[in-house]
Amino acid sequence: MTFEVAFERLIGHEGGYVNHPDDPGGETNWGITKRTAREAGYTGSMRELTRDIAKDIYRDAYWLRARCDEFDGAIAFQIFDAAVNHGIGNAIRFLQRAAGVADDGAVGPVTMAAAKAMAVTDVLARFNAARLTFYTNLSTWPTFSKGWARRVAGNLNYAADDA
Question: What angle do CA 125, 97, 122 make, to 5 degrees?
């Protein structure tokens, strides 16, 4: 899995400009929150954030920071998508829970070894189970559940294709 392929998949989950009053992420464009955009050095209007700028932010702030390129491609995409949607720490915790190691939210040698020792299909199934459990515990589940469930369903299809 390359970043390019992962980005094209991810952007299918993310929309254009949104400022939903119930979304704790606030103002977003291409799925990039205003806070993340500012942290990446973007100072313009969120409505004017381009797809190319969003792509650069996704590569640096999520793909590289979550070390996605060090995992099997099928797992890399799932981590990337979850990192964008839940934060890197939570995405790594999902992986750690799937791999049966302490869930401290940091990728280290124990997490890497455990994930690589398991069948990719097992990691993918358990990862998405942890993700769904996380979603259902959020106070915003009633508002956003349909979209989140569709996102995971789409990712399970990608998992089946990738594994």
Answer: 25
